[in-house]
Amino acid sequence: AAAGLSYVGAYVINTYKSYDNFLQDKYALLPAVIIVCVAVVMFIIGLIGCCATFRESRVGLGLFLAIILVIFIAEVSAFVLGFVYREKVKTDVQGTMRSVFEKYDGKNPESTVVNYLQEQLHCCGVKNYSDWTTTQWFNSTGNNSVPLSCCQQEAKNCTGHLDQPQDL
User: Please, what is the average pLDDT of the chain?
Assistant: First the structure.
């Protein structure tokens, strides 16, 4: 379990590098760091449990049980807090995404991240392609189209024009 959590934490931290422009709050990495710390603690606790079992120590097994109960309570608390604050997180991420989309000009680092995100997640805009109609880039280009990263991969002749929404 500790190895699995370590992998998940490291994967989230590594993936963060691709999306750091969307997550301007540096505390967004906090859950991943906590996951890695929990993995280390779980490894130590696993060693305590193994040693206590091997030595048949009642005190060691009691300590192991107490630690497992504390971890269980912490996991339930984290689940409840995640459930309670999910809408706030969703609203904050959407607001940050909208501000990054506003900075889109096709050349700056934010534009590269937006294009990468849309290509990787097979999406267009924050909610859909119509989100682009309110951006400065859309108004400045005047060609009534969205970035080509909005195009579906199987669409051969996609130009990004809004009159062909089936290609987006």
Answer: 80
